[in-house]
Batch of 4 targets.
Target 1
Amino acid sequence: MNSAVKILYPLALVIALVLLPLVTLAVPASQIVFMVIPYLAAAAFIFGFIYRIIRWANAPVPFNIPTTCGQEKSFDWIHDDKVESPRSYWGVAWRMLLETFFFRSLFRNSSAELVGPQRLVYGGSRWLWLGGLAFHWSLLVILFRHLRFFTEPVFPPVLFISDIDGVLQLALPALFITDFVILIALTYLFFRRVVLAQIKYISLAADYLALLLLLGVIISGVLMRSVFKVDLVAVKELAVSMISFSPSVPDGIGLPFYIHLFLACILIGYFPFSKMMHAPGILLSPTRNLKNDSRVSRRVNPWSRPVRVHTYAEYEDEFREPMKKAGLPLEIDKAATE
Amino acid sequence: MADKKLKPEEMANIDYRPPQKDWMDAEVEFRRGSYCYSAPLKNQEMLQLPNPRQWNPQDADWKLPPDWKQIILDGMKDRLDKYRSWRLFLDICVRCGACADKCHYFIGSGDPKNMPVLRAELIRSVYRRYFTAGGKIFGRLAGARPLDEKIIKEWYYYFYQCSECRRCSVFCPYGIDTCEITMLGRELLNLVGCSTEWVVTPASNSFRTGNHLGIPPHAFKQSLEFAQDEVFGITGIKVDVPINKKGAEILFVTPSADYFAQPHWFTLLGYLMLFHKIGLDYTFSTFASEGGNFGLFHSADLAKSLNAKIYEEAKRLKVKWVLGGECGHMWRVLHQYMDTFNGPASFLEQPVSPVTGTKFDNAKSTKMVHICEFTADLIYNGKLKLDPARNDRWKVTFHDSCNPARSMGLFEEPRYIIKNTCNHFYEMPENTIRERTFCCGSGAGLGPDENMEMRLRGGFPRANAVRYVREKHGVNLLACICAIDKASFPPLLEYWVPGVETAGVHELLGNALVMQGEKERETDLRGEPLAGEEENGGKQASV
């Protein structure tokens, strides 16, 4: 399968997903049926998410295998790295915090380049880190902003964050900073998969699908606010009714909203079955969330079983004569006992 | 050996462009110089490995057992339930590519399947096909592929082109550790009787004789007596070499190469001199005469079996604690696995240095201390008189061995020893040391000579960093704390950076160590005249 197919299939799928609400929602009564979809997506997300976590959590961690990226704690006079080679739970907590919120390991990224005959150089390579961080943080802020559709009155921090995110609206109405940033970041993440030969080589259709779905959700969201101007008051009415489990569809929200909602639902429902599960997965990663204390406290392997060993007695039985000749001490000295 | 011997400039002409063809279609070519021979039948049988047989990787037919497919799938299922690392790492990779140019085999060969991400995909693709809904339904579109014999061959080729060095796991945003993928991949291969000679033969030797070279106890003793003589020749002091001595305070376990190979040998001399100097009550063991654990390169069960000897012997000899020599993967096992494998060692006591009284809190459960920790503590407490000038002919750099670095965090102790025993020490560039250190290219069972081209390619990034300090500072000695390093660097550096030699840290210590009652040193442990001797016409620096 060549890489064009790996991009075209997901692209075709996302286009189909955009068209689907356009076609079906032409029938007015179908709108209420359409409202089942968010519930399905939420159910798939919640149960799928929990199921995946349980699958991982049920598998034991038989050995203590942290990757140590700093000095161990040995003597008082040697400064140990309490985060990158953590001995305490606090150290692990810091390490996980840095990984989760600031992508610590990716920040280390460097590129190896062969610049001349037998000359390798390593350069800082932080674009992936920056792109990844920009995307994830923007997404977090955007999700947080969306809370204003679900509560009345709106939770003050949501308004506060939205106001900060919206300072550019003085010049560019209806656009948030995070909208810009996430579009740029996702575009970068998509194009690096297409342009960089090695990344293209390792990419799967699922990698493009995740990016294209995200782009679909975000572009539809931006367009429905800035171009098609859907009725946001009606949207909020719908959202509130849905989370109180009494869905009522107000008139005249406009089709672009349904496209946005539908794509978001697909993304949410797909989430637990996709690579996007790296989000909770990182927290379970045994090379990161374990203490470097394996000589201090013994880890028990729950499935440990006896293995075949060659004992000292068997060993001495084989080598008794030469050992005796060499003057090595023996457990059972045959000549002495005879 | 490679069919045609490549010159360094030819080998370093590396093409990083991936092929046009999709990786799922590629077939493995067992090119001479880049793969390991299969294990001999008698050693497979000695270790009672599953499906033993004589076969050859270059043959079309690998004589796999008839139900090999089921064996592999059952083996995968079993391991998915036993190792969270495996299940998680097969699930959460996003193929961001951050690991790609972190692997020394990829940097040195340009083969895209040596990118850690793709090495893992070799197994992930099979996992998806049989263990995930998406893979079962969408097949190839979901990155899944059905298991066939070609895949087994590909696994054999690429899981023995990974030295389990964990460098990629430092850079992975989720901490995905290719070492876990490779270790369990090799276990699966073992289930269908596909293991390499250079892993199984040393492991079977270790199983029977206690050490990987298959040295019987009397030859072990002889070898240590030679060392004793050699120390006498250099220092005029007859050091004691206790073997299998019951009631000694400390059991000393070191890789067997230390007493049979060069330049390991000089490190052994350093140990003997140090132990004499401080009057250590210790013993060697012929039964636990190998610290290195070739089982780790094969399967967890075999690693556990070989490792069991250390505690068994410590118990039999009634020692108080165990001291371990310079070795890489040996310390992965001792630090991260031994206590879990074969502990708790309740018959031992928490290690305390008999010289300084320092309690080794960091080893209070496993009761095994690294020689660099032990020696650094001696130096810090002023218990050793050292004359660094005796190492003046060396301009030294230090290579962090993968496992002590990324699985222990042992960075400062060896550096502390070097700085106290040498006057000229230079670090390699920061992207190539400490947790970012590069493998020697021959670790984890990849060291046989038939694999020489791949070893040289894998060692290229390390050698390149050595070359940098050689050109900048005139470095002529690479110090390290790993037995495989000591075996693989001499040919590697000769190929890429002629003029740089390899030594253990305790060789440098032995050179600098001032012992009471010793004669005036004329040579270092290698029998080479001391720098001062040459320059000052026999006048030694200071004792």
Note: Confidence is low (pLDDT under 50) at residues 535-543 of chain B.
Target 2
Amino acid sequence: MDHVAVSTEGMHLRAPLPDEPVDVRFDDAWLWSFNPGRDAETAGSERLVRWPAILRPYLRGRSTVALVGHTSDTVLFEAEVAFTDADDRVRVVDEQGHPLGVDKGGRLQRRFDDTDPSLRDHIVAAVEQILADLREKAGLDAFLAFGCLLGAVRSGSMIGHDADADVAYLSKHAHPLDIIRENRAAARTMRELGYTVVPMSGADFKIWVPLPDGRRCGVDVFCGYFLDDHFYLLPSVQGRIDRSSLLPTSTVTLEGRELVAPARPEDLLSLTYGPHWRTPDPAFKFAHPTWVTRHMNGYWRGARNRLRHWTSVHRAAAPASGDATPPGFARWVHRQIGGPANLVDVGAGTGRDAVWFAGKGHTVLALDYSNAARSQVRALAERRGVDVDVDALNLFDVRSVLSLGARLAHEPAPRHVYARGMIDELSPAAREELFRFAAMVSRHGGLTFLQFKITPHSRPEQVIGQIEARGGTVESVRRPGGGKQQGKANKCRLVVRWA
Amino acid sequence: MNSEDNPELAKRVKALEQEMQEVRQLNRRLADVLDVVTELLVPAMDRDDARVRAALERLDKFV
């Protein structure tokens, strides 16, 4: 029996692997690295290294899977593996067909060592320009950080298994509200300078740098700050460091270019990667204490709640998935409305409901916070030959709710709001935003139709209480299937009118 | 001491943690609102609308 078996679940190790990071290669292309000592869990008589969740949807078809010791370069295992019956090769590639790998954050990324030298130079030049603009135009004390800083100090070059570029800045503020406002102002300035900027949280944003070959590279801009004498650095570094380790800045050389660095780069690297930061480890993972994650999530995150999940769901979904029969709720709402009407589908997802409503003669606006979902809705509407307006609405972001809500409320037409399954997905605060939005856009008349699963977190009386507290009147409460459906969660339907 | 020793205390800590997160999140929500207000106030004043002016004057009295 082989000492390693590979399944859709992961790698089953039946004998110990050497104590070094292990590279996983599919058809000779690096895909992921793990650390057997840290990542293997005991499963009966063997040890199991599970596939990162992000890889699972890709494990269809066959591949030659090899495990290679990263330091020793020894092939520890190699075999042709059939993950499913399909004859296709497993392909983990981006939209342009470029190979991807799993980075230390569990995300699929391109890698710098697949990038030719002129592209690397292009990336480093972009980082240099971004640093200059952050410092001179956005007024931030910005410097190189994370992988780029590590590569610069260790070897003067980019690290092969890294796939993004990172810079950081030390906030001038010591209150979370001011830190958020400073970050947003900087993001705005960079956008005004012509950069493509995506806010990742209240204290970090990503700048997409277009590459000459049509690809793009993400440069993350992370905020560092002192709160009550503790130092924090997005996304999840925390520890003791003296301000003088960071400022005034110094310089380091990366791929032949001189870039701004913290005052003492070694101090920040030691805090970021631990005392062994000088030894290369492609399987390195940040070990964040729970309280730091809670701190970061609590203060900065939330606007992109589960966005990555929904994006991967919509990207992985077959294009035909929106073609299925419309849910009973859509048909029920259609009957309630009667003739053609203005309808806003909040959380449109695949667009199945929105497109069906449009086919029935309604004027439909489909809203979703996931770009991938919005693309799906547009594609489905086009295939069906119906008109559906599509726009972004993020119920985790008050700005999105107020700005779109106000624009729609300004149009003097009655408008119904349709939200299937949204209550199930939303935090209590985001539910409030859903109700705020619904009340705003139906200012000139119209009803709000909600369907949700009845759970301890969403009991009908609790949801109704929230609606009434916002000034809504629940006109009808229905439990399809008489409140008891075999093998299915009980659902509740509400019809709401806002005063 | 672990949570089995004192389930009541563990429950209170969990509730406190939840409340703490809610308070932390207020920073972001307040920043959102400030952004919207800031974006709107200046162009609103530029329109030289008497109602906007009156509304701001009313607000001013409470500051």
Note: The mean pLDDT of chain A is 91.
Target 3
Amino acid sequence: MTAPTIPLGKAGNSNERAIISVRNLVKYFPIEAGFLRRQVGLVKAVDDVSFDLIEGETLALVGESGCGKTTTSRCVIQALKPTAGQVLFQMDGTPAVDLTQLDKKALKVARRNIRMIYQDPYSSLNPRMTLLQIIGEPLVINRAVKGRAELEERVAELLRMVRLDPGAMNRYPHAFSGGQRQRIAIARALSLSPKVVIADEAVSALDVSVQAQILNLLKELQKELGLTYLFVAHNLAVVKYAADRVAVMYAGKIVETAETEALYITPKHPYTEALLSAAPNPDPDTRNRPRIVLTGDVADAGNLPSGCAFHPRCQYAQDRCRQETPELVNVANAGEPAHLSACHFAKELELVGIVVTAAEARNV
Amino acid sequence: MSSTHPIGTPVQDPALPADTLLSVRNLQTHFFSREGTVKAVDGVTFDVKQGEILGIAGESGCGKSVTSQSIMRILPKNAKIVGGEILYNHQGQVIDLTAVDPNGRVIRAIRGKEISMIFQEPMSAFSPVHTIGNQIIETIRIHQPMSKAEAREQAIEMLHRVGMPNPGRNIDQYTFNLSGGMRQRAMVALALSCRPKLLIADEPTTAVDVTIQAQILKLLREIQADLGMAIIMITHDLGVIAELTDRVMIMYLGKEVEYGSVENLFHRPKHPYTRGLLASIPKMAPGRIEIEPIEGSVPSPYALPTGCKFHPRCRDFMRGVCEVSEPPLIPIAPGHEVSCYLYGGREERA
């Protein structure tokens, strides 16, 4: 596979720096069968994924279940060992390191700067630990504080940062609601002052009123602390609000990536078009909009279709799509920010994004 | 077990218009446990007309699912209907479902035949050790005198109608043979197998991907038009409500806060909670659109606020009014009701 020749960030802007560059990332899981657990196949969970995470931005990985978005994020933080590929991490003024090549000790140091927030704050927090223990644990393990007074001071600061009362640090998670627990999880993730936070469906389990609180908190923290987010999510409306750039994944590959507004208004991949069309819109006036309802299910990563993995569900598919796997290439006009699509017909097709606003629909 | 109204004996005051299929009046369903009483549903009133789609929306703990379980009489053991009526229009006879034995003949003649239900998780509707066909055929034959062969025909026809790719083969498959979207379709086929008058859909698309969700919503829309049944759509997703329903009831902590047509609810929302919900969801429209969260979080059901349940989180909180007594549900336009002192109801206070 050839490495992409153009930067995957905002094209041409040299003052933007990739803090993490993922190159040709591959993660296969073996399918084993029988008494001897012989390998009979491979689940190609992530198959040649490359992207740059630009310092200070929010990049969203979106797609349906099984598309590889979570596996990708786990490979970035080395919670899963990639089958192949590089995860280059570069902090200010230091040379880039490939996280996949680091030993345990060096990885531990690097991971201080890349932290995770998970979906379910009911299972991600140990019910037998107080907030002080939960939030302070990374500080203690990494010997980032000296003594109990300093620990308490730092935890109090973190609790204030996520708009919780520092007086609650000796209480247990059960005393808190779902939204408050997610704030605790965020405080823990921020305890070592990381550069990058990976949020894996961090607002998906929350009620909508609370989801909005957490989304706004993440935005405020990004501004205050200069954080970079890799935001893994399936809800397109949430992604539209949260992300600067979006990478859409299907069957283990990135099929399209662009700045958020461009991707939503002028999608360049039929799968993105279908996703945007399928997302329910909280406006009854738009319910009769023309809609693309895909047939069938998401491609099985253990038994991928030939050529473009999306072709069996694509209304524009032609013979070429069945035979030839499309490369992810820039289809933006000269001078415009990069807009990458892995579709043979990205330039010819006139795909529809979210152009219909409520007001427009009412005027029709 | 004392069965009260056998089918054929209408309740005393059958004041139901002919086009009203179901009328829930001041329903109160409470849960009893050692920690105390949870008023999961506390005085909810709504009608379902023949062939309409009613949405019930709200956040977790608002009582939307308990409302549907009360109608079906499938409440957990520690829950009890303590007040109100659920009047069901059974071929011109009005039956109060709160008064029938939850395991008796009357409810069993209605449940699964006239009122059926689909759930978030299809595996809760199906047994994993029987083929989906056998389960659908069994359901059909419980309610209709029919030979096995006839019931099988009808089951295949239903599987075809819900868009199963190969009904003749799918009928002999087990749930583990089917993908998530196909299971959801099979569950819809099971629920529709006796041609119900009312389908209760409890978060049917919450656990599925957005492309599958679009398939299921399209299917419900088509089948509703086809069979003319009424649907109660229960969901936390206001997008789904806007896509599918005719009328909407918004619930908060067991209370009905607003009730009206889908257009009124989305374009002329009145209750501060409804407005807050709409302002807090990110929109799928061009441009940067800010979202405004509702402050705080849903309180514990064991320690409910006094007065209006929403007052601690409300922007328009009026001291001396909202925390003192509960606002009644008052009509503010034809078919649009709201329970908020901003719109009146104060003079009725004791």
Note: Chain A touches chain B through 50 residues (CB under 8 Å).
Target 4
Amino acid sequence: MTDLSATVERDPSLPDPTAPLTASGSLRRRAIVSRLVDLTASGSALFAVAMLGLVVFDVAKRGAKALSLSFLFTNPSGFAGGGIANALIGTVLIVAFAALIAVPIGILTGLYLTEFAGPRSRSARALRMVLDMLQGLPTIVVGVVIYGLIVATTHLETGFAGSVALAIVMLPLIARSSQEMLMLVPHTMREGADALGVNRWRSVVGVILPAALGGIATGVILSTARAAGETAPLLFVNSIYNPNATQLNIFGHGVPSIPIYIYTNYDLPSQQAVNNVWGAAFVLLTFILLANVGARVLLARSRAKMSG
Amino acid sequence: MGDRIFYGLCAIAGLLTIFVLVEVVYQLISGASPSISRFGVGFLGHSRWAANFGIFGAAAAIYGTLMSSLMALTLATPLGIAIGLYLSMMAPPAIRAVVGPLVEMLAAIPSVILGFWGVAVLAPFAAKYLEPWLHSVFGFIPLFGEPQTTGLSIFTAGLGLTLMVLPIIAALSRDLFLTVPGELKDGAAALGATRWEIIRGVVLPTTVSGVAAATVLGLGRALGEAIAVTQMIGDGAGIHASLFLPGNSLASRIATEYTVSENKLEIPSLFYLALILLVIGLVTSVLARIISSRFDVQRTLAR
């Protein structure tokens, strides 16, 4: 009887099958590397959240000093003393008017993309490309363009010019988000309307738009919040005005706004002014963050409704 | 009948959108034409900007734009990808649902507020700690020269831009990583790959062009940012190797000169700067589109 195991030559390059199944050598190294990557990634996420927290905390801490009811309801006096009432009213006016221009055009553009142009058609591709380019346009460039278009010809900075500039910033955002939301509307709803012999425009107005309404509203809110915080488009077209007076006539005069208030006063040498600028920043940031949270909640609810 | 009118309305809105872009291009070219015919392409290479002497050149601003944006991308790209990986592959669902929106909210902070915060908090921090430390360790590289006391510098502007670009890259790369088919990841895991090996071997290779597109979009945002950069970059003249000196970017040069015009060529020269920004903006968005369409082709082939 010969010993069989002695006659089989083992290939020394293969792993030893009788070795115990515990991590050693390179396997342990691989696990450690993977663990390090995990830590780096979660650390990065922590860093981003911490930076958001830091900015919000600093603005809130310093802004709270200036904040009071009279800060919100009185006009500025002297060099950025007093309150910010006129800038608040002005921002609401300019942004509302910008929304009045951008929302209908944006939603109709979104409807054109989803309801009329085939997704692969040349016109739809061209339009999507234009929307991408408009969205990539630096906002200061928009300001310069509206300066050339309106201010240089009328020799007058007006709130209206500011609204037009903000509308150009909002337009691609609204069109893009409307398009995406309209695409989420189930095909069965369109086909159901078609099967009942409903006109296209009636099915859009009566069925498709209502179904996508929550999502479209989300896009409108987000773009409005974005426009409310924009400074660069206003700089050339709506920054010359009496900073201490309320101005309601957006067609005839420059209208004060919160971003321009911050931009023109943040480096004033008076402590009172700097406190007030922090206060204005706090008010603006609160509005924008609340609008963002609200929009997200709305989006989640309308998504759930559409899929459920 | 109603259908016709409705189609007409939608088509008009679409045409209006296209018209806006055409008008933007036309306005910039016509507004810049006096400066273009006076300075020509040499405008791009000339570094001095002295409005009261009628001397205008974009080179210093282009340099400041490039340095601050490249610095922001260098910092934000790896960080953003790491956050994208964390949110798509590592975070428990409950944490993901909170951290994801918070990261995106970083992008919602208005630039004028971020810039003001940068001047009040970030710049002193940079001048007191970051810049001296970098100077003492890497001082032999000309980029890290002698720090200034104010902290208003290309470096600080680059840090601010990092915070603005980071959420864009993070959110886009998270969405990309979520599109990687689960079978591929499971297959790699079944072969015994660790999470890092799955990332390196499967997730990153299948999304590389999309991540590149996200980076280009972030770059476009950084290049065109005006207000926050104007506040933090310190409005310096000339081209200096050191990042710690004040500088200017294309957008910040436009934003600082918005009130005054001392020379009849000044406004056309600002239009010229805006035209350069427009070209850069269009190139980046087209580039991102080309890259990501290649990505789409890859994904459809993989299915």
Note: The first helix of chain A runs from residue 4 to 7.
